[in-house]
Structure to design on (454 residues):
């Protein structure tokens, strides 16, 4: 009786050990891939108003790919259970994993967000690249920056 | 590993089952269908490949799953009360215990699948409780008659009706879960622990006021030490299956790791359920009890 119980439990353990590495993420099988893909560079974004104050601080992080928990890439899958519309696509399947968003994609994305900001006349949107520098391997500072000014077509102010 | 085939008194088994049910309930309470209006993406669960997309679009799936889960979890948790206080035959109480245990497992599985299929991200913390619930349901599957009978005779706590494999397999699943986490990091990049990626994640998602975040950003060497430690700890977690003293150290290490993650990142990634299960199964509650019994 006890042997039968142990055999069944062992089969359960074996199924988890054998299936998880193949499927990576298919509930209830998981390789717990959170933070598994190490970035070697990072693009960070911000949008500022005429006074230089950051607006929409969560625009770029809550509506972009999850850089520390990217979608499963096995069984022909490329996304999560639900697809966010108008999301900023910032994750690449291949190293260095951080994808550069083109100026047009960035403009389209910010334009969507401006729909809900009728009090903003314009915004300055910055795209900063952060990566390791040979001259100072200990610290991280933007090595490349680009700022674009975007008028808000939905502006209803004076 | 020899203890898998031995029988123990069920004090730890019953208490750990209650804690596990509470932990699973806490996770089920967190589930929602807030993103159900978004277009369906890929299948994230085994059930996703079985059921059609239209099923996952139904707003009733989660409320119904939750009702089944909470009712069965309560019923399962209260088996010791049913057996003593309700004047039903032993056979009927055994049937109630078995039904509630398996409905609880399957409803938890269903709720988790429904949640994963309707999220624009992943929630890994739902994985471990499923396997632990399944192991506990198997305990009831094989020992429900003895459990109910000893409860009726008021001899439950003194009877050897908790097989070692329940505890052993629970430790196995937790250990392998963390080991897989380490392996997936090593497989994606052998130099995963270089410190650079931790610094970049901290820049992107870190809390600038956190002392740990400042420590990471101050010098890549600090980040490398932390990242390499986590990688080693996770990858070697499987050793907890075999060695009790190491199990305690690994529990403390992984618990500290979860606390550090909470402190570093401003986007909160609550892993309270993992912390509870680590402390429950990796600290030597079960083995201490066994030693006490032997000395008596």
């Amino acid at each position: 009786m006890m042997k039968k119980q142990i055999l069944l439990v062992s089969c359960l353990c074996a199924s988890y050990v054998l299936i998880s590495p193949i499927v990576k993420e298919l509930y209830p099988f998981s390789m717990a891939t959170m933070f598994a893909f190490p970035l070697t560079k990072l693009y960070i974004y911000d949008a500022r108003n005429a006074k230089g104050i950051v607006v929409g601080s969560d625009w770029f992080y809550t509506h972009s790919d999850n850089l520390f928990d990217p979608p499963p890439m096995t069984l022909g899958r490329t996304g999560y259970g639900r697809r966010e519309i108008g999301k900023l696509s910032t994750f690449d399947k291949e190293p260095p994993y951080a994808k550069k968003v083109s100026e047009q994609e960035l403009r389209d994305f910010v334009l969507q967000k401006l729909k809900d900001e009728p009090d903003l006349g314009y915004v300055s949107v910055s795209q900063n690249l952060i990566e390791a520098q040979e001259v100072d391997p200990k610290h991280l500072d933007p090595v490349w920056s680009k700022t674009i000014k975007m008028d808000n077509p939905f502006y209803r102010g004076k | 590993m020899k203890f898998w085939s031995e029988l123990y008194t069920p004090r730890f088994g019953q208490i750990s089952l209650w804690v596990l049910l509470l932990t699973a309930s806490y996770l089920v309470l967190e589930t929602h269908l807030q993103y159900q209006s978004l277009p369906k993406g890929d299948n994230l669960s085994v059930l996703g490949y079985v059921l059609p997309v239209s099923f996952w679009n139904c707003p009733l799936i989660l409320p119904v799953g939750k009702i089944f889960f909470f009712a069965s979890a309560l019923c399962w948790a209260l088996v010791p009360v049913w057996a003593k206080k309700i004047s039903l035959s032993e056979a009927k109480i055994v049937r109630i215990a078995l039904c509630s245990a398996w409905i609880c497992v399957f409803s938890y599985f269903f709720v988790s699948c429904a949640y994963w299929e309707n999220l624009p991200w992943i929630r890994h913390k739902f994985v471990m409780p499923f396997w632990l619930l399944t192991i506990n349901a198997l305990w009831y599957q094989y020992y429900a008659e003895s459990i109910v009978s000893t409860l009726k005779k008021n001899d439950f706590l003194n009877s050897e009706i908790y097989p070692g494999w329940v505890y052993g397999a629970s430790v196995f699943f937790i250990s392998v879960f963390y080991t897989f986490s380490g392996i997936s990091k090593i497989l994606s990049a052998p130099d995963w622990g270089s410190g650079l990626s931790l610094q970049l994640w901290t820049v992107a998602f870190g809390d600038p006021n956190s002392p740990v975040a400042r420590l990471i950003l101050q010098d890549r060497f600090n980040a490398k030490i932390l990242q390499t430690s986590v990688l080693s700890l996770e990858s070697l977690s499987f050793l907890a299956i075999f060695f009790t003293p190491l199990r305690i150290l690994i529990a403390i290490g992984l618990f500290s790791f979860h606390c550090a993650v909470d402190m570093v990142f401003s986007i909160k990634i609550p892993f309270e359920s993992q912390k509870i299960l680590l402390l429950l199964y990796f600290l030597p509650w079960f083995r201490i009890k066994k030693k006490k019994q032997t000395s008596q």
Residues 24 and 31 of chain A are 5 Å apart (CA to CA). The beta strands of chain A are 25-26, 29-30, 41-48, 54-55, 122-131, 142-151.
